[in-house]
C-alpha cells in the first residue's frame, strides 16, 4: 500500500514538472513577417527636374481586389535618376514604415529591380549591408533609349548573399513583388 502511494506521488510530481514546462522560455527571438501594403519608388533626375513616382497600394493584401498601381509620368531618355524605395504597412494608423526595419535588418533583405527585356532601364545599388552585399533601398537608374515595358520590384527576405543578382540564385522568401508599366520617352 505504501508503494502505491509513493508511486502515485511520484507520478503526480513528474506530471507537474511536465505540465509546468514552458516553451516560451526560448531565447531565440521571433521575427514576424512584415505586412507590406504599399510600395513607393521615387526616381529623381540628376540635376533636378520632376521626379517620377511609382506607387503600388494593396490594402486588402491577398484579398479579391488587385493592387492600385500609379505612375506619375514618363522617364526621360538618356537620363540618370537617383532613387529610393519605401515600404509601408497602411493597415496601421499611422502607417508603419517597414523600410526602417528592412534597413535595420539589411543582412536579411535585398531589393531586386527587374526591368522587362524591352525596357531600356538599368539599375545600380547605392546601399549595402554590413558585409558589403547589396541592399537596394537606395539605387540609381539609367533610362536609355525610348522604350516601353514593365519593372518588377521584389523584396526578398533571407536571400543568399552574395548572389549573382537574380532571384533564382538569391533564394529566400518574397516579402513583396509588384509590377509597374513604364515608358521612356
Question: What would your notes on this structure say?
Answer:
With 185 residues, this protein is of the alpha+beta class. It has helices at 2-19, 98-104, 167-170, and strands spanning 38-45, 52-57, 68-71, 79-89, 96-97, 109-115, 121-125, 138-143, 147-157, 173-184. The strands form 2 sheets. Strands 1, 2, 3, 4, 5, 7 and 8 form a 7-stranded antiparallel beta sheet that branches. Strands 6-9-10 form a 3-stranded antiparallel beta sheet, with no helix packed on it.
What order do the helices and strands come in, and which of them pair?
Blueprint: H1 2-19, E1 38-45, E2 52-57, E3 68-71, E4 79-89, E5 96-97, H2 98-104, E6 109-115, E7 121-125, E8 138-143, E9 147-157, H3 167-170, E10 173-184
Antiparallel strand pairs: 1-2, 1-4, 2-3, 4-5, 4-8, 6-9, 7-8, 9-10
Pick out the low-confidence regions. 1-24
The N- to C-terminal Cα distance equals 95 Å
> Approximately how much beta-strand content do the residues carry?
35-45%
From the spread of the alpha carbons, the general shape counts as globular
Please, how many helices? 3
Average pLDDT: 88
* Number of DSSP strand runs: 10
Computed over alpha carbons, the radius of gyration is: 24 Å
- Could you spell the SSE succession in H and E letters? HEEEEEHEEEEHE
Q: Helix proportion of residues, in percent?
A: 10-25%
User: Largest sheet, if any?
Assistant: 7 strands, antiparallel
Total tally of structural domains: 1
Protein structure class: alpha+beta
Amino acid at each position: 500500500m505504501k508503494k502505491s502511494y509513493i508511486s502515485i506521488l511520484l507520478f503526480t510530481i513528474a506530471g507537474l514538472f511536465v505540465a509546468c514546462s514552458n516553451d516560451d522560455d526560448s531565447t531565440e527571438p521571433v521575427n514576424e513577417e512584415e505586412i507590406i501594403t504599399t510600395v513607393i519608388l521615387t526616381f529623381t533626375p540628376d540635376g533636378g527636374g520632376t521626379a517620377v513616382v511609382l506607387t503600388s497600394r494593396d490594402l486588402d493584401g491577398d484579398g479579391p481586389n488587385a493592387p492600385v498601381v500609379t505612375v506619375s509620368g514618363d522617364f526621360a531618355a538618356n537620363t540618370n535618376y537617383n532613387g529610393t524605395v519605401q515600404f509601408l504597412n497602411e493597415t496601421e494608423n499611422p502607417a508603419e514604415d517597414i523600410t526602417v526595419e528592412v534597413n535595420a535588418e539589411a543582412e536579411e533583405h535585398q531589393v531586386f529591380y527587374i526591368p522587362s527585356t524591352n525596357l531600356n532601364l538599368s539599375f545600380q545599388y547605392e546601399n549595402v549591408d554590413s558585409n558589403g552585399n547589396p541592399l537596394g533601398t537606395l539605387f540609381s537608374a539609367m533610362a536609355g533609349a525610348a522604350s516601353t515595358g514593365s519593372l518588377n520590384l521584389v523584396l526578398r527576405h533571407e536571400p543568399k548573399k552574395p548572389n549573382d543578382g537574380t532571384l533564382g540564385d538569391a533564394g529566400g522568401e518574397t516579402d513583396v513583388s509588384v509590377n509597374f508599366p513604364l515608358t521612356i520617352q
